[in-house]
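Sequence design from tokenized structure. All designs in this work follow the same two-part layout: the structure record, then the generated sequence. An example of the structure record is given first.
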């Protein structure tokens, strides 16, 4: 049953190119919100000036728009909780930090990096947890004054409760974290800059987020945030603790988490190769969720209609590029021919096309498009598959030439040309019969007979249906290319 009160958020940092794991997180949040007629909040976590960039921010917006993952509140849309960029909300975090200090929920920590490391080493040697040991938790006013007089900097730490924290993860069930595993943690740097550990839950609280669906790598920070939420509720900053669901890792090669450095991790790669948004989203949705036991191909609308966070699998999901390509190919076949032809347009122009713009023949393209559609895995493949139609002569792939021109190719091509001269060029079946007859004259089956003809006409051993291609190219051009191949063989 839909719940219109559900509010989720997608809050990436604008660093580098968008990652497919990040997109999977956005997709699950978006589908959950749309399934429940809830609200999708898009927020930018840009407090790390050293790593964040405006270029990455623009890429994030562009990527979400391309994928069709729209948002109800956020940049370019606005909303009741603006601004939606953390860099524009610093006064809010400062105010909350001061309230936490005044309420006794947080304290100033004057420990130096050298002191912290020495105590961590000692704890490790003693076989004890190496997290912060609470040294500054109950400093006297005199000790604080002395540290300040010494010129020591201080960070602000949140005071964790001394009892276990238990919560029910929407994906993983009930989880408990003991106090020794969740020590007091920093929320404000010595220079006054707020840390992720503060700004993220404060924004979720003020934006009344009801469900936090995020990657498994953030699971260890959840008990900290729950403790902070309880403090924020007591301070009147938050209304309730949201429900948490931690999505499974996306794994790459060698059972390792797919990282930004992995080539297949970049969303831009899939756009550049000509994945359809529908195909890519279909595949990404299967990384931790399934539509049904026997159905992998579905539309975005069908996914939204069935999506439930309770159905997400906690086990890591393996990224399989071949499966992604196969699913994309299915979505290409699902398009009507006109939409397919329009989707291919970017790859029929510079810088992808290697033919002159004036040599592009739209009628020939529209005629070949239905045949191309049944063979494409990604749209970028269209350029090499149809270039023979628009180039003055085919670009010979030497390995293909060597593979096809075995035995006595000149004799076969000569016979094929003679048969083709008398064929009906408005009927691909007639062209096929001509080449079949030429093959029989030389003791060859159709597959062997058509290989040199295909290379002569298109330059390649594989590609679109040969006889339909020859019909569209036309009798004159096709025979001229067979003549050119014969001359090449003679030379």
């Amino acid at each position: 049953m839909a719940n219109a009160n559900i509010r989720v958020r997608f809050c990436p940092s604008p660093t580098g190119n968008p990652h497919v794991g990040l997109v999977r997180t956005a997709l699950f949040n978006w589908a959950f919100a749309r399934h429940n007629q809830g609200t999708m909040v898009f927020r930018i976590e840009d407090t790390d000036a050293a790593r964040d960039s405006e270029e990455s921010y623009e890429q994030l917006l562009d990527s979400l728009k391309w994928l069709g993952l729209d948002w109800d509140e956020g940049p370019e849309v606005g909303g009741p909780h603006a601004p939606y960029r953390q860099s524009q909300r610093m006064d809010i975090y400062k105010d909350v930090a001061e309230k936490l200090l005044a309420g006794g929920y947080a304290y100033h920590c004057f420990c130096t990096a050298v002191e912290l490391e020495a105590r961590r080493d000692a704890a490790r040697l003693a076989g004890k947890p190496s997290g912060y040991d609470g040294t500054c938790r109950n400093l006297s006013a005199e000790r604080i004054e002395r540290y300040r007089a010494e010129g020591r900097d201080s960070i602000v730490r949140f005071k964790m409760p001394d009892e276990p924290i238990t919560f029910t993860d929407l994906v993983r069930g009930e989880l408990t974290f003991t106090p020794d595993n969740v020590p007091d943690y920093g929320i404000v740097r010595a220079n006054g800059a707020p840390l992720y550990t503060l700004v993220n839950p404060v924004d979720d609280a003020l934006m009344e987020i009801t469900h936090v669906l995020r990657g498994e790598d953030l699971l260890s920070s959840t008990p900290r945030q729950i403790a902070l939420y309880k403090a924020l509720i007591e301070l009147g900053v938050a209304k309730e603790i949201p429900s948490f669901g931690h999505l499974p890792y996306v794994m790459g090669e060698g059972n390792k988490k797919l990282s930004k450095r992995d080539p297949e991790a970049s969303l831009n790669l899939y756009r550049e190769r000509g994945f359809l948004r529908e195909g890519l989203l279909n595949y990404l949705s299967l990384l931790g969720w399934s539509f049904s036991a026997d159905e992998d191909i579905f539309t975005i609308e069908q996914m939204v209609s069935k999506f439930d966070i309770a159905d997400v699998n906690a086990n890591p999901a393996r990224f399989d590029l071949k499966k992604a390509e196969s699913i994309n190919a299915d979505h290409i076949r699902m398009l009507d021919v006109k939409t397919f032809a329009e989707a291919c347009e970017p790859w029929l122009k510079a810088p992808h096309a290697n033919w002159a713009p004036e040599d592009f023949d739209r009628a020939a393209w529209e005629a070949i498009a239905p045949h191309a559609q049944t063979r494409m895995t990604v749209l970028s493949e269209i350029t090499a598959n149809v270039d023979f139609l628009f180039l003055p002569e085919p670009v010979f792939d030497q390995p293909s030439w060597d593979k096809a021109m075995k035995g006595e190719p000149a004799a076969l091509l000569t016979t094929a040309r003679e048969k083709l001269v008398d064929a009906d060029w408005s009927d691909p079946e007639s062209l096929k019969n001509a080449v079949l007859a030429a093959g029989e004259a030389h003791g060859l089956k159709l597959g062997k007979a058509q290989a040199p003809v295909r290379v002569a006409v298109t330059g390649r051993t594989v590609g679109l249906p040969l006889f339909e291609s020859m019909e569209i190219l036309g009798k004159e051009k096709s025979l001229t290319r067979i003549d050119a191949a014969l001359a090449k063989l003679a030379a």
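The chain has a mean pLDDT of 94. We note this feature because it recurs in several other targets discussed in the main text.
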